[in-house]
Amino acid sequence: MAKFTLLVHGGAGDVSAGPTARQRERKSRLVLKQALLCGYRVLKMGGTAIDAVVAAVKVLEDSPLFNAARGSVLTHRGGVEMDAAVMDGKTLSAGAVAGVRKIKNPIEAAVAVMRCCQGVLLAGEGAEQFAAEQGLKIVKQTYFITAGRRRQLQRIRNSHTMQLDHDSGTDHPAEDTELG
Amino acid sequence: TVGAVALDQYGNLAAGTSTGGLVNKRFGRIGDSPIIGAGTYADNGSVAVSATGTGESFIRSVCAHEIAARVKYCGFSVGRAATEVTKTVIPALGGRGGVIALDHAGRFAMPYVTRGMYRGLIRSNGQSQVWVFD
After folding, report:
1. What DSSP line would sit under A154-176, residue for residue?
2. 74-113 in A: which are within 8 Å (CB) of B?
3. In which order are the strands placed within the sheet that holds B2-7?
4. Which residues in chain B have their CB less than 8 angstroms from residue A89's CB?
5. Is A85 helix (H, G, I), strand (E, B) or coil?
6. In which band, very low, low, confident or very high, does the pLDDT at B78 lie, cut at 50, 70 and 90?
7. 3-class SS string, chain B
8. How far does A98 lie from chain B, in Å, by closest CA?
9. Separation of alpha carbons A72 and A139, rounded Å
C-alpha cells in the first residue's frame, strides 16, 4: 500500500494551565485522535485526500470543544457566523462558504461549492440556500451555541475587542466546565 | 479554528479549514479560513496548508499561498517555508497563530506563535500522535 499522511489542528492560542484546562486538554486530545482515525480510515480504504480532510474536520466540527460548527464562538449579537473552505491539490479546485449560520457541517458545504457550483466562495443566506438545495443538513442556531460560549461572550462583550478561541484561559468554556 | 491536510495514496494533497471566527466579532467580519490562499491552500506541486489564528494577518500575507510559493519557486522545504512565514511574516503584521503544512512526500511542519496549538498526525502505518504544547 502506498504511503499516506493526515494532519489536523484544533486551533491555536494562549492555551492556559490549571486543572480545568488540563481536563479540557485531555478531552481535546481524544477528539483530535478520533478525527485522525476517521480520516485514516478513509485513506486506508483508498479514499481521496479531500474525503479524508472532510471526514477529519467533521469530527472536530461536531465536537463542542473546538471553535467550528457546534461550539463556535459567538458574535457580538450572540449568534454564530461560520466559515469553511476546502482545496484539492490535484485540480486546484476549491470551494468555500462564509458567514453561514445554519449549516450543520460547513466543511460539507464548502465541498459542495467546489463540486457543484461555478463559484468558489458563497456567503450568508445564499450559501445556506445552496447547501439546502444540495441536501445538506440545516439546523437551528441553538444547535451550535453552548452555555460556555455564551458566558465567554458575556465577559468580553462590552470590551469592544475580539479574541482567539483558545486565548485567555478564564474566558474559555473549559473554565466554565463546558467540556462536551 | 479546525483544519486538516492530507496526502492520499495516489499522491494527491488536499486542505480544509472550518471556523467560528473570533469571539465578539461584528459587522459581518470574515476571517482567513474561507479565503483561498490565505487560510487554506493545496497544490500537488508544492504543499497543502491550513491555518489558524488572527485571520487579518493571514489574509494580508496570503499566508497559505506564501508557504506554497516558497516551496514551489524557492525550493524551500515545507519546514523552512512554513516556519519562516508563521514565525516571521505573520508576527511582523501583528498576527499570531499557527499552520499545518504537508508536502507530496509526506514531510510536514506545524509551526505556531502562540503558547500552544492543538494538532495531530497519523501515518499510513496507523501510528498517530497529538500535541498541544511542544
Report:
1. HHHGGGT--B-TT-SGGGSGGGG
2. 74-77, 80-90, 92, 94, 96-99, 105-107, 110
3. A121-123, A94-100, A82-88, B13-19, B2-7, A5-13, B116-123, B128-131
4. 12-15, 42-45, 48
5. strand
6. very high
7. CEEEEEECCCCCEEEEEEECCCECCCCCCCCCCCCECCCEEECCCCEEEEEEECHHHHHHCCHHHHHHHHHHHHCCCHHHHHHHHHHHHHHHCCCCEEEEEEECCCCEECCECCCEEEEEEEECCCCEEEECCC
8. 6
9. 14
Cα separation, B69 vs A5, in Å, equals 21
> Are B6 and A53 in contact, with CB atoms under 8 Å apart?
yes
Sign of CA dihedral B15, B21, B22, B26: positive
Distance CA A169, CA A140 (A): 29
Instruction: Write the pLDDT tens digit of every residue in A117-160.
Output: 999 999 999 999 999 999 999 999 999 999 999 999 998 876 66
Number of residues in chain A: 180
Mapped onto helix, strand or coil, the DSSP state of residue A9 is strand
**Which residue carries 460539507 as its cell?**
A108
Q: Which grid cell is A76? A: 457580538
Q: What is the dihedral of CA A79, A80, A81, A87, to 10 degrees?
A: -170
Residues B90-127 have pLDDT tens digits of: 999 999 999 999 999 999 999 999 999 999 999 999 99
pLDDT tens digits, B50-64: 999 999 999 999 999
How many beta carbons lie within 10 A of that of residue A129, not counting itself? 12
User: In sequence order, which residues have a C-beta less than 8 Å from that of residue B56 and are 6 or more positions away?
Assistant: B31, B32, B93, B95
Q: Sign of the CA dihedral A30, A36, A42, A45?
A: negative
Q: Is the CB of residue B16 less than 8 Å from the CB of residue A51? A: no
Rounded CA gap, B106 and A118, in Å? 31
Q: Which of A7, A82, A163 sits opposite B23 (nearest CB)?
A: A163
In this structure, are residues B103 and B71 in contact, taking their beta carbons and an 8 Å threshold?
yes
